Amino acid sequence: MRIAAVIVAGGRGSRLSGATATAPKQYLPVGGHAVIAHAIAAFVAHPAITDVIAVIHADDATLYDNAVLGADVSKAKLRAPVIGGATRQQSVAAGLESLAHLWPPSDEPNFVLIHDAARPFVTADVISRVIESLRHSSAVLAATPVTDTLKRATTSNVVTDTIDRRGLWRAQTPQGFRFATILDAHRKAVASGQHDFTDDAALAEWSGHAVSIVLGSECNSKITTAEDLMMANARMTDATRATDVETRTATGFDIHRFTDGDHVWLGGVKIEHSARLDGHSDADVVLHALTDALLGTIGDGDIGQHFPPSDPQWKGAASIMFLADAKRRIAERGGRIVNVDVTILAEAPKVGPHRAAMQAVIGAALGLSPGRIGIKATTMEGLGAIGRREGIAAMASATVVLPCEDKA
User: Fold this and answer.
1) pLDDT digit string, tens, across residues 123-136
2) I need a surface site. Which of 19, 182, 219, 239 has the fewest CB within 10 A?
3) Which domains does the chain have, with CATH numbers?
4) From CA 70, how far away is CA 31, in angstroms rounded?
């Protein structure tokens, strides 16, 4: 599936007083790099996005080149920029038409996401939600619910009434569309003499398409004023989102019964034993529980969803690959694993002699030092299935730091 992103960057930023004398707002530095570079990098880094194209002002070619070069943005998905028009609508149309002519009609993008360059804090989760919704909608809008009390006032700023905020949303970008749908809508708008749409979702509505809403993020703010720019810089340190992070913790559990064999796999380490654990893969309860804990920090299902036991390709698979996949999913969302902790429930074998080896295997897979990997073990004092030596269980927890996300 081809999914393109159009980064709209043709504006002059007239409301950002005092800064436009040096450059339009999208080329001003935030955290050491241009605003537009952060926006582009978010889409280039997203695994589902295949092509990224920026629409720029005719006077900004050098500014654009310097912005992208200075941020060392990967060029693998980045197309040459397109010159936009006098309005945002015309600029978006230019980007869409450029994409339409890059490939034959049969190979055009399936979806396109349209994003304002002045929103440098867009996260992978917001992008993913828009894409996922497009699988059953033709037009999708990222937005956040209005939480402030709304007032209507006269021209002299006297309140006349309070507006019910229920059902009201603040529109953001990216806005996603079936490519053919939004391209056709833009062409119809031009043919009808409509040139003043400032929002592609509104254009889609005008064209007769229902627009679905997915949750955006309070972090996905737009830089419009000098104060916005100052606050954006406060949120960035060396192009890294330093202050707008949240810590998440999740747990996992797994249990496997014994069957005939001469070894068990625990924490990625092969340990001699009088039986083996029965499972579709190597039945490593430590890595299975830990994988589920990591997936839980990002709300991404469980190990059975991503590696179903009904799939023959996972028969006898080494569970360390499941753990590595969970790490990849967290990294794609800009997350960092802080520490993991596992408690093994077993009468035998002894875990202590293998603790360091387990820490080494897990640490290599997750990029963690041994001091961030807890491996503990306890017996069940002869109680229950584990106490009767019918199997082994493991409980795990994981702590992950992620970029600021949903506030709803």
Assistant:
1) 888 999 999 999 99
2) 19
3) 3-241 (3.90.550.10), 245-403 (3.30.1330.50)
4) 12
